[in-house]
Amino acid sequence: MGEGTVGPGQRPPFPVVGPQGAENLSGLQLAGIYPSSPPVSHSVPMILSRTAVHCLAAVATLMLANCANQKPAEVTKDGKPVFKNPYPAGTYENFTAEPTYPKTFSVWKNEELLSRTDASNSSIVVSLKKQRAVLLNNGEIAMDYPICSGIPSRPTPPGTYYILEKIVDKSSNKYGKILDAQGDVVNGDADSTTDTIPEGGKFVGAPMRYWMRLTNDGIGHHIGPLPKSRRPASHACIRGPRDTMPTVYGKVKPGTKLVIEE
Q1: Which is nearest to 138 in space by CA: 114, 162, 165?
Q2: I need a surface site. Which of 103, 114, 197, 256 has the fewest CB within 10 A?
Q3: Within a domain: residue 64?
Q4: DSSP secondary-structure letter at 20?
Q5: 224: domain CATH number?
Q6: In this structure, are residues 194 and 210 in contact, taking their beta carbons and an 8 Å threshold?
Q7: Pairing relation of β-strands 132-137 and 238-240?
Q8: More confidently predicted of 7 and 123
Q9: Looking at the predicted structure, is the pLDDT value of residue 217 above 70?
């Protein structure tokens, strides 16, 4: 027989195996044992790859479970995220952080501080830009309320003022309405210094209850209507809400400081 040829009933001197089983088979051959087939050798990389697959599958399962438990983000009708106020409810920061603050008619109060506010420690700051005013107790905000300032042709002048007088029942002697002899309104936005009163008619001054005079030419802080648009609409006076102005009135005196800011 030629070299490498195996006769009937003979075992090959060196079984034909792959390189992975060569080292193990050489040991068996030395012992005179010839297995019918080479032993199976498991690859370490194969084991690691299977483990990694199981781990990834477990992680994916957990992620899907978490996603399923999460509520979808709330959005408005136009698709924008719903505003979440980051400040504690009831605080002034919470009140002013609300998107509705610039247009709201709501009044914020620090009830405890407001109860300690009086003519000895109070002052007022009016913001023309915000169309709001704050009543202060030694510089700390006790109340924040909406106001209405003067229209562009009759603007409320910024500056520092001091209350000159207080009158609960006050009517304007310049602005109001003109009635005819039958009592019908013929001019609902009249100026008594420039508009004509018909024969038998009369001028009725606009009510300005809880009046706090700031200037000698007729500018003051008092009860008055606030437009729904929250825009300036007065004849230079600073109007305030009907339910709020009695409180403000009761916390100040002639000489109390009132600052009007742009």
Answers
A1: 114
A2: 103
A3: no
A4: G
A5: 2.40.440.10
A6: no
A7: unpaired
A8: 123
A9: yes
How is the beta sheet containing 132-137 ordered, strand by strand?
A: 108-109, 140-146, 132-137, 122-127, 257-261, 159-162
| Cα angle value 136/140/141 (rounded, 5°) | 60
Q: Is residue 48 part of a domain?
A: no
Q: Which domain does 139 fall in, by range?
A: 92-170+208-261
Give how many domains the chain has, as a whole number: 1
CB of 7 within 8 A of CB of 1? yes
Average pLDDT over residues 129-153: 99
Q: What is the pLDDT of residues 67-94, one digit of tens each?
A: 555 556 577 677 788 899 999 999 999 9
Closest CA to 94 of 86, 104, 83, 82: 86
Question: Is residue 53 domain-resident?
Answer: no
What percent of the chain is helix, strand and coil (3-state, nearest 5)?
20, 25, 50
Written as one string, the DSSP assignment of 156-212 is PPPEEEE--EEESS-EEEEEEEEE-TTS-EEEEEEETTTSPPPTT-EEEEEE--SEE
Do 190 and 170 meet the contact criterion of CB atoms below 8 Å apart? no
How many residues does the structure list for the chain? Answer: 262
* Residue 206 tokens, joined: 């606009």
Q: What angle do CA 252, 143, 262 make, to 5 degrees?
A: 85
φ, ψ for residue 202, nearest 5 deg: -155, 165
